[in-house]
User: Fold these one by one.
Assistant:
Number 1:
Amino acid sequence: MKQGGFTLAEVLVALALSAILLLAAGRFLPLLLQENARMVQRALLYQEAQLLLLALEKAVRRSGYCNGDCSGPALTIADSGRCLLLRWDDNSNGRWEGPQHSASDYFGWRLRQQQLEAQRGVSQCQGSGWERVTDPAFMTVQAFGAEQRGAQVHLSLTLQSGQQQVTAQRWVLRENL
């Protein structure tokens, strides 16, 4: 009576093939995990760029709003496009409160030391008191630019985290001219 099953040689061949496949998978897995980490980092960087552009877009769209009689420039681009100064009637009282006012209607965004900063109550790009809106532990801002063409403002950001770099840009139509 003959019994079914594998011979010793067949089992050894199967084990050898399994070991080769596991070794190949073991070498491939770290590369796969590394590539996955890079993709996640790039996605987070792109998401951060989009969120920053949305905040800037909102400020540009608001610029010039006045529920009364306001005078002066509503939008100023300075420092070769690396600083954006804006004014809008935030409390709808019919005037733009000056930079020294506690409820100032003057707002600014600037690039300084590879970080994007913002401040309320500013009429120029220099000075102190600006707050970072980006996290230097996660990324640097390689470029920030604003350019006005008629009623449109072109905003662009280039962010870098590790070896990953993304550039995002947007055209914004000013609504309160």
Number 2:
Amino acid sequence: MSAAPGQPTSKGLIRSLVGIRGYLSVVVVAVHLAPFAIALVPLTAPFFLPVWHHAYVALDLFFVLSGFVITAGYRGVFARWPGWGAFGKFLWARLSRFYPVHLAVLAVLVGAVLGARAIGREIPHGGDLGVDLLRQITLTSGWGGADALTWNGPVWSLSAEWFCYLLIPLLQPLVLTLRTRTACVVGYLLACAIPLVAYSVIGFDDATITYAMPLPRALGFFLAGACLQQLVHVDRRLPALAGRWTGPLAVLGLALIVLMSTLEVSTMYALPVVGLTVLALGEERGWLDRALSTRSSMVFGEVSVAIFLTHVPWLLGASLLINPRTFPGGWGWLGIALLLAGVAVCGWLAFVLVERPGQRIMRALVKRPAKAPRASVEEKTEAAVESTPPSRDEARTGR
């Protein structure tokens, strides 16, 4: 079955790769919740301090996951230049996944800043209404050269991933030249080496890897995920072996992260091992795959983008009311619970009221080719964003 131009060619839905997104978003939320939680309940510092300083590796795994599923879905489309029309549809499909929520959150932030100024107050947002705001709107805030995270800070990672999407016509043919198991493994290691070597030289400090120079991080791990998917395509032994050891691989990766955080070494060095979890989950076997494939995990994964885009503005806004002064002593635990509940509520409301309707509107503006599949498997794997099920011919993952 050949794909229509601009449509993904992967077959089947790897449920665990949808489910894992939700749990990765929990880690990201924990990173940003940490300073508020420690202020409310100082006893939580032994837990939240390591999370705050070392759990950013969850974002790197997002990049690996994205490279894996994009390559699985569009390998046939971008094996060679498909034309500007197909490329534009690919970018539009990617943009529809997060841009409506991004713009909605940004509009709320701008409105809050302007409203506060009208009454003589100032809401800290780290940016201005000129260049900083323009970089957020154009998704270039994560391309490096910034002095700080501004407006909705986490958008830097979506911006960096957007940069990878723009390079897909160049990156995909390069990855598809890897025709042997050895070539794919070497490609994976070299891709992981891009950020590890770069930041070993210029530093792993938060400023460098998030807003001053984040592209080596995004591009390297995105390519690593693409190489893992190419390995699935050219070889069965190593992916099958990884699939049999999914649980131990995940435990080993977590142990490496804990060890490196204890030794005060960048947890990014654990990514060559942690990234293999994506390859293993792609085999759809074992207890970890089953745990990540439940209905609740799938729903969690679907809402992950909305949670990611709304949680920092919520935490910053809610902290004006939920802080050690208003929730002193033992009441701090209630404050943490309210912050977490707000994260969930804001994420769900953004998903239901903005993300899904906005996505439908954006995709309705681009008509599907007459013979296009009813649903995009890659899009479903990346967050189950299509509302229609895959066709009968898309029953499996093309292995």
